Every structure is written in structure tokens, then in C-alpha cells.
Amino acid sequence: MNIKRIEIPLVKYLMLFLNWGMVLAVTGLILVTTNNIRDSYIARDFLDRAEAVPWKPGAIFGICVVLMGILTLSFVLREIIQFKDSRAEAGSLALDFAVSIGIVCLLNFNYNGILLWVFANVIFHTKNSSGQFLFMLLAVLSFVGTDYGLVSINYPLYSIQDYISYYNAGQQSYILGIYNLLTSLNMVIFIIFCVLVIQEQRGTIQEVNELYGKLSVANEELQQANIQLQKYAVMKEKMGQTKERNRLAREIHDTLGHTLTGISAGIDACLATIDIAPDKTKSQLEVISGVTREGIQEIRRSVNRLRPDALERLSLEYAIQKMVEDTNALTNTQIFFDCQVQSLHFCEDEENAIYRVIQESVTNAIRHGQASRIDIQMKRRDGDILLTIQDNGKGCEKMNPGFGLEHIRERIALLNGTVVFDGTHGFLVDAIIPIRWGEEYD
Length: 442
Hints:
By secondary structure, the chain is α+β, with helices and mostly antiparallel strands. The protein folds into 2 domains: 3-166; 237-434, Histidine kinase-like ATPase, C-terminal domain (Heat Shock Protein 90, 2-Layer Sandwich), CATH 3.30.565.10. It is built from 14 helices and 5 strands. It has helices at residues 3-40, 43-49, 57-81, 86-106, 114-125, 132-145, 148-151, 160-164, 169-273, 278-305, 309-313, 316-330, 348-367, 403-414; strands spanning 334-339, 373-381, 384-391, 418-422, 427-434. A 5-stranded mixed beta sheet has the order 1-2-3-5-4, covered by helices on one side. A hairpin with a 2-residue loop joins strand 2 (373-381) and strand 3. The longest helix is centred in the middle third of the chain and has 105 residues, at 169-273. The protein is rod-shaped. It starts with a helix and ends in an 8-residue tail after the last strand. The mean pLDDT is 80.
């Protein structure tokens, strides 16, 4: 926090406190001295020396206390409540000026230092205004115009000096010393206030210059960031193209691998039965032909839209079931699909990933593991899908993930999931896939 912003209000409070003391001292001195003169029966002598006497010193004392209270209340409202309406603030300052002029007049211009406090408030609240110098000029003219020596030339005024002269020499020195000290102190504090305001304005200008410098630096950094962002956009576009190529490669690999594995197993079965059961071989060849055509269509569709044709026509559960039935018909491998999740319906990328993981796992189990049984289980746990694919093939103790397993891992990773492979007893694919659960089928 800026120290000057704390000091300026404190200076104004100090000036207010000092002016309370001066007004009470002047009016109190006149009241007490008047009572002493009356009680001492020397009023005639005092009147012969004095050019004028105040009207009802007691009333003057009370009225000045009330007017000082109004000034204090107006000041507190400005400093603490802080007027949001500029017109209300200007009215408050005008009220201060009028009340201070009233106090100076009641004191017969023996003390006009209260105007310095009012002008300090005016300067503080108009320091950013175009009319600041006009207010300062008005303050100087008002302060000079209310000087006792200047006004007393044309008008008979009572003098504080006449009341001080009532006391003996020692008391006069003491009273005059206090009076002059407080008057001078009020002037010094006002000067200090003006210096603080000027320094604050200079500090504000310096802060503006510093902020402008920081803004220039920030603008240069922003331009550099914009250049980097453009480079990043180009890089991201290239990464997107590479990612799409990899995705396309995975799609074609999965589709071709699964289709060719089925065809290979089906042809092996035909070779085993062609001599002993030609009719069965013919039926098997017809199945192979149908699967081959579907594989070709799916490869074409994968290139065009990268979504399995079965998923375009069927739900995920039925698409998986169709894949299982086709594979069972082509090969000697028995596949069992246990779905414990009701009404499978996920986002497109989730369905693609699950379908392709099962497809690749089945292909690997038949081609590499020579499995005769594959168990596929899918169940839900909280917001995740638990996908387990276990076969009874030969497995592999030393696992070197190839293209297919890497595809499975990449697909699961794209969905922020995890997958574990275990080749100790057959081959196990154990995946956990977070799902953005959408609306379900009725």
C-alpha cells in the first residue's frame, strides 16, 4: 500500500483536531476574559481601550462548537462513507466552505486558519479535476481576504490582543506563545499536506510511466507468443495428420488382420474336409466368401469414415456378437461373449475403441495363440468398463508387444484407460476404460 495515501488522510485529521483547538481556544479566551472583566468591575477601562467587543461571547462559543461539529460530520461522511455521486461531494465541500466562513466571521477574523483545512479537503478531492487550479486560486484569495489586519482597516473588529492584554506580562507571553505556535503549526501542516499531494501526483505519473513500460514489454511478449502460437498451430495440424494416419493404419490393420485370420482358418478347415465332406467344404467356402466381402466393404468404409460397418448398422453389443458369430462360423475356435452391462451405448470413439480391442484380441488369440476357446467379459464398475479377454492358447512368457498389442494400448490410452497383458496362462487382455456415460437405449 502507498504510504503517502495513508499519510494524507492522517494530515487532514490532524489539521481538523488542531483547528478544533484553535476555535475553542479563541472563543473560550474571549468568554473567560469577558467574565473576568465583568466580575472585576473594570469593564469601563476595557471598553475605553477596545475598538469593539463581541456580541454575547457565550453564544459565539456555542455557535462555533455547533459549526465545528457540522464540519466534522461532513468530513467523516466524505472520508468514511465516500460519496458515490460527485455532486453530493461537491455540495459537501461547498458546505464546508460556507461554514468555515461563518466561523471566521464569528471570530471577527481573529483566526482564519480553519480555511486552510477546508482548502486542503478541496485540493484533495479535486486533484484530478481540470478546475483544480481555479479552486487553489479561490483558496488563496479567500485566505488573504479574511486576514484580520486587512479587514480591520474598513470595519471595527474586536481584537484577540485586547483580551490577551487583560492578563499580566507573564500570562500574556504564555498565551501569545500558544496562539502563535498553533497558528504557525496549522500553516506548516497545510504546507506538508500540499507537498504530499504533489509527491503523490508525481508518484502517479511515475506509476503510469512504469505501467506503460510494462505494457510495451507485455505487448512484445504477446507478439512473440502469437508467433509461437502460429508455429504451434502448424505443428498441431501436422501432428493431427500424423495421428489420423496412425489411426487409419490401426483401422486397416485391425480389419485386415481379423478378416484374413478368419479366411486363413476357414481355408484350413476346407483343406481338412474337402476330400471327406465336399458339401460341408462348399458351405464353408460360402461363409468365407461372405466374410471376405464384408471385410472388403469394411476396409473401404474404414478408409472413408474410420468406423466399423457393424457399428454403423448395429449397437455395440450386437456388433460384438455378430463378430463372435462370424468368427465361430469360420474357425474351430469357440468364442463366448458375456456382457454384464445393460444397454451398451457410448460415444463413438468409445465404441470404436472397445470393438477394435476385442477384434484385435480375438485375431491375436487365433493367429498367434492358436486358441480353441476365447472368453470375452464386459462389466461395469462405477464409471468404468472392465473388459477382459482370456484365451487358452499357448501364450507367451517373454512378451514383446507387436503392432497389434501397441494398437490396443494406444486405443485404450486415447480414452485415458489402462490395459494389462498377461501371457502366462494362455493370453489375457485386461482393460479398464473410463466411459462418458450418455443416454441409454430404451
